[in-house]
């Protein structure tokens, strides 16, 4: 089976979701060395809330907003409530965010049950369309578009605005930024909240494709970790490139060698880190 | 002729396309007190790190007591008697003062990377640690974690640990930085009393420390050696004054210099 | 100093009482709790081996289950294909774990921090994949069932099989824990803490830090493989689940909850996590949530681990007392010391 348009579309749409989940994690990590293992939970919450809202209101757009908002609220809670006081204590961050992940998983299982839930795409994007001679699901194509737009927006925000310059300076040298009298904590809080928002949006957007179930959070969390590390911590461009690479490899292996699908990306990650210990676009010294 | 304590031969250091050190050659005789001065960004700390082995030299040779150490990693250079202090005192914050001294004393005492015998059973080392702590006036804080100690104390813990290893060539990177003004005279006295069989290379901003302590002074500017000579020669060197001293001395403790 | 000596004696007394209780456990406990205790012992060893890396050397490994699984599969394969006696099989399991560490060490030690975490995780997943796909040898996801549980010969017939295996585990884990105690309290152990604190400073004191880390990684691998081998015998089965990163994550949680970088912390963490899993799940389905809440409370209230609970209580009591009476001697020493003038002390030296 050749690499055709259909698998490319599936891969790239998955890459969109991965990017949304991992970019916040990456920048937050780069900025504050913060390990957030509740990233997958934010995705999960976004997905579940979107599913419920869509059922009640029949509006996909409203579902997206609700999903993103729910993750935003949870993200702000996590940051304000706990993470603030664990600066530079990586092991405690791991334990704490893992604890949050456990709780979120259990609460969501309580509310939404253990079966996978799937959301129908909005009417405009239902069915399939023809693209370069192949028939592909329309919603997947839309996802690629949305992912690309958001990626450009995030990239612009971080690379082309003054605020983004502060963030990048913080990634390079946090103390320096603090010396300049910039409130790094506030920047961090905003980045964290934005990251959570994108995660929730990813969860809402992903529900028609991946579905949500207990376990989706772990799967996305692991994928996001791979993407973040492969792309290089704190690098938006790296997150974009790594999302695409990881998603395409995952999709290809799924089609050609399904039994190996769950560990192919890990082999990729191991290979990249053995060759380049600092990730694809990461800088040395970390 | 005696073997020099330290020889740098055409040492250069390039980091990311930026030349930090350019063609540095200098010789320090045994027992000499050499100060390296220069404006911020002149490459002083980089120079010490290249000598100590924390940064590999891009070009040139580093020779310590006649032994070419250019290719040796930092920890092997300690074997030839080379030790360095840090701008931020190089101490282990979560360990107690005693453990900081012990960790230095235990180096190389045991074969197999120290996988032999318990630290607390090593009476000989414990006794020596007690001595070192007393010598440095650290007995009162022996069992306090270093992170609870004030800066001056941390500096002393750092020096105590280094002296426990009996350095032959000691590199001091701004040891007076962070000391209170009234602590500096005593600090200079302490430096002056160090045994003369020890060679010292000192990077320091405080001109008071430099001019009252150094036998010779090397001036770095933009990563290259601008001048090299006795304190008097350096003081009267117009080029140096223009590049550095005038401004620095106006800004800092000009009176003492 | 006196207080320290008293505290040390207390600790010795507690350890002695615990040892006696552990020896008497089969007489005191019914079969099921005894097998839970056996599992706790095995995971104590696993968590302690991880603690060498995570707690002492500060290397955040999320792939420690690779060694656990290697030990398990070594035991499983030897039992299945060669019928190797347990003592020899456990030795080979340790050697296998050490070999895996020797091979992967140079790669993982090129990375730091989060990259180390992901690389150890990735390599573990790759091993998982190999085991999963290599059905012919490893049995794939069915694993290798029917591993005969070893017995201490002269106790056979006198006590139950559960008690027999319990004693076997107690002896092996006891020896291994003593060995770990000996390692972390040696100069090597102190140097590992130096690496965690600041690798570069330690190098500046003349320590070959890379070699130290490599040896620590190898030792941790060996001990974890021993735990894995015991676990395979305990379950009579080895499967990919024993390599799964979930197990590595659980080990990490045990270490952090109990107290990373403390000697007994991982044991307390193993006890807590397994009791939560078995006991709490017996009376509520919400045990995952309870586990999560325990994590969070632990991090917020006892950030240095449960093992520091007595110290924490002392601190809080001291703080309460200080408000009414005098400052504790420690604060006095540090506060008064600078006033005794750096000069005088420096001059004296």
What this model shows, in words?
The complex is a heterotrimer of chains A (286), B (257) and C (349). Chain A has one domain. Chain A is built from eleven helices and two strands. Chain A has a two-stranded antiparallel sheet with strand order 1-2. In chain A, β1 and β2 form a beta hairpin. The relative contact order of chain A is 0.20. The mean pLDDT of chain A is 85. Chain B is α/β, with parallel strands linked by helices and 257 residues long. Chain B folds into two domains: 172 residues, Rossmann fold; 74 residues, no CATH class. In chain B, the strands form two sheets. In chain B, strands 6-7-8-3-9-10 form a six-stranded mixed β-sheet, with helices on both faces. In chain B, α3 packs across α4. The two termini of chain B are 33 Å apart. In chain B, 44% of the residues are buried. The C terminus of chain B is likely disordered. Chain C is mainly alpha-helical. The C terminus of chain C is likely disordered. Chains in contact: A-C, B-C. At the B-C interface, α2, α3, α5 and α6 of B face α8, α9, α14 and α15 of C.
Summary, kept brief:
Chain A is mostly helical.
Major sheet: arrangement of strands of chain B: 6-7-8-3-9-10
Helix content of chain C: over 70%
Q: What is the C-alpha radius of gyration of chain C, as a whole number of Å?
A: 22 Å
Q: Write the CATH architecture name of the largest domain in chain B.
A: 3-Layer(aba) Sandwich
What is the percentage of strand-forming residues of chain B? Answer: 15-25%
Helix content of chain B: 25-40%
Class by SSE composition of chain B? alpha/beta
At the fold tier of CATH, the topology name of the largest domain in chain B is Rossmann fold
CATH superfamily of the largest domain in chain B: P-loop containing nucleotide triphosphate hydrolases
Q: Tell me, rounded to a whole number, the average pLDDT of chain B.
A: 86
Which stretches of chain B of 5+ consecutive residues score pLDDT under 50? 250-257
Determine Rg of chain B (CA atoms, Å). 19 Å
Q: Kindly, what is the distance between the CA atoms of the first and last residues of chain B, rounded to a whole number of angstroms?
A: 33 Å
Assembly state (oligomeric): heterotrimer
């Amino acid at each position: 089976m050749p690499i055709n348009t259909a698998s490319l579309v599936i891969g790239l749409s998955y890459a969109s979701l991965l990017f949304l989940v991992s970019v916040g994690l990456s920048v937050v990590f780069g900025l504050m060395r913060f390990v957030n293992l509740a990233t997958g939970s934010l995705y999960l919450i976004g997905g579940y809330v979107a599913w419920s809202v869509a059922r009640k209101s029949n509006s996909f757009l409203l579902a997206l907003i609700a999903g993103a908002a729910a993750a935003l609220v949870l993200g702000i809670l996590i940051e304000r409530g706990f993470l603030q006081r664990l600066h530079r204590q990586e092991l405690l961050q791991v334990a704490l965010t893992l604890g949050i992940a456990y709780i979120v998983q259990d609460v969501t299982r309580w509310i939404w049950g253990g079966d996978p839930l799937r959301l129908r795409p909005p009417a405009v994007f239902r069915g399939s369309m023809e693209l370069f001679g192949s028939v592909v699901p329309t919603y997947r194509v839309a996802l690629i578009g949305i992912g690309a737009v958001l990626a450009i927006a995030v990239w612009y925000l971080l690379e082309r605005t003054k605020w983004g310059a502060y963030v990048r300076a913080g990634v390079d040298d946090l103390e320096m930024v603090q010396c300049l009298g910039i409130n790094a904590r506030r920047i961090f809080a905003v980045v964290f909240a934005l990251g959570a928002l994108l995660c929730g949006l990813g969860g809402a957007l992903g529900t028609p494709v991946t579905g949500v179930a207990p376990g989706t959070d772990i799967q996305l969390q692991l994928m996001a970790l791979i993407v973040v590390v492969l792309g290089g911590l704190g690098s938006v461009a790296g997150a974009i490139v790594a999302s695409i690479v990881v998603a395409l490899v995952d999709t290809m292996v799924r089609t050609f060698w399904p039994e190996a699908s769950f560990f192919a990306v890990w082999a990729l990650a191991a290979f990249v880190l053995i060759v380049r210990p600092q990730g694809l676009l990461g800088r040395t010294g970390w | 002729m005696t073997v020099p304590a330290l020889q740098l031969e055409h040492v250069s250091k390039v980091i990311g396309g930026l030349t930090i050190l350019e063609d540095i050659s200098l010789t320090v005789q045994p027992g000499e007190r050499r100060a390296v001065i220069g404006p911020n960004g002149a490459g002083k700390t980089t120079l010490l790190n290249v000598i100590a082995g924390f940064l590999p030299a891009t070009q040139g040779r580093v020779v310590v007591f006649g032994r070419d150490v250019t290719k040796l990693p930092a920890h092997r250079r300690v074997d030839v008697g080379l030790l360095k202090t840090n701008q931020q005192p190089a101490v282990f914050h979560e360990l107690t003062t005693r453990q900081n001294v012990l960790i230095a004393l235990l180096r190389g005492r045991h074969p197999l990377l120290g996988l032999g015998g318990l630290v607390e059973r090593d009476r000989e080392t414990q006794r020596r640690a007690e001595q070192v702590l007393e010598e440095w006036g650290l007995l009162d804080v022996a069992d306090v974690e270093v992170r609870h100690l004030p800066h001056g104390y941390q500096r002393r813990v750092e020096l105590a640990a280094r002296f426990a290893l009996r350095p032959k060539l000691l590199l001091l990177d701004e040891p007076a930085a962070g000391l209170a003004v009234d602590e500096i005279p005593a600090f200079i006295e302490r430096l002056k009393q160090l045994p003369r069989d020890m060679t010292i290379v000192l990077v320091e901003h405080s001109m008071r420390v430099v001019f009252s302590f150094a036998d010779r002074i090397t001036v770095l500017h933009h990563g290259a050696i601008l001048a090299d000579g006795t304190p008097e020669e350096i003081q009267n060197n117009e080029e140096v004054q223009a590049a550095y001293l005038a401004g620095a001395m106006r800004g800092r403790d000009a009176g003492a210099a | 100093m006196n207080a320290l000596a008293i505290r040390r004696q207390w600790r010795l007394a507690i350890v002695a009482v615990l040892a006696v209780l552990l020896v008497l456990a089969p007489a005191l406990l019914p079969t099921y709790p005894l097998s839970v205790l056996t599992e706790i012992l095995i995971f104590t060893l696993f968590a302690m081996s991880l603690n060498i890396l995570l707690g002492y050397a500060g290397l955040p490994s999320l792939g420690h289950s690779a060694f656990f699984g290697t030990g398990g599969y070594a035991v499983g394969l030897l039992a299945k294909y060669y019928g190797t006696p347990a003592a020899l099989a456990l030795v080979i399991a340790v050697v296998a774990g050490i070999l895996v560490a020797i091979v992967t060490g140079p790669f993982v030690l090129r990375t730091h921090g989060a990259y180390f975490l992901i690389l150890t995780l990735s390599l573990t997943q790759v091993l998982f994949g190999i085991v999963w796909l290599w059905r012919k040898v490893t049995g794939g996801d069915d694993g290798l069932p029917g591993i005969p549980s070893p017995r201490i010969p002269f106790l056979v017939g006198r006590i139950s099989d559960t008690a027999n295996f319990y004693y076997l585990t107690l002896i092996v884990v006891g020896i291994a824990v003593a060995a770990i105690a000996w390692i972390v309290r040696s100069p090597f152990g102190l140097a590992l803490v130096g690496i965690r604190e600041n690798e570069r400073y330690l190098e500046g004191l003349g320590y070959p830090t890379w070699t130290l880390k490599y040896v620590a990684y190898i030792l941790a691998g060996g001990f974890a493989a021993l735990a894995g081998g015991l676990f395979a015998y305990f379950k009579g089965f080895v499967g990919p689940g024993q390599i799964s990163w979930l197990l590595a994550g659980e080990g990490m949680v045990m270490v952090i909850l109990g107290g990373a970088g403390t000697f007994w912390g991982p044991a307390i963490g193993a006890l807590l996590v397994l009791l939560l899993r078995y006991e709490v799940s017996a009376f509520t389905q919400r045990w995952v949530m309870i586990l999560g809440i325990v994590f969070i409370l632990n991090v917020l209230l006892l950030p240095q681990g449960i093992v520091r609970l007595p110290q924490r209580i002392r601190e809080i009591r001291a703080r309460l007392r200080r408000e009414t009476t005098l400052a504790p001697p420690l604060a006095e020493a540090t506060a008064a010391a600078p006033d005794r003038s750096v000069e005088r002390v420096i001059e004296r030296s």
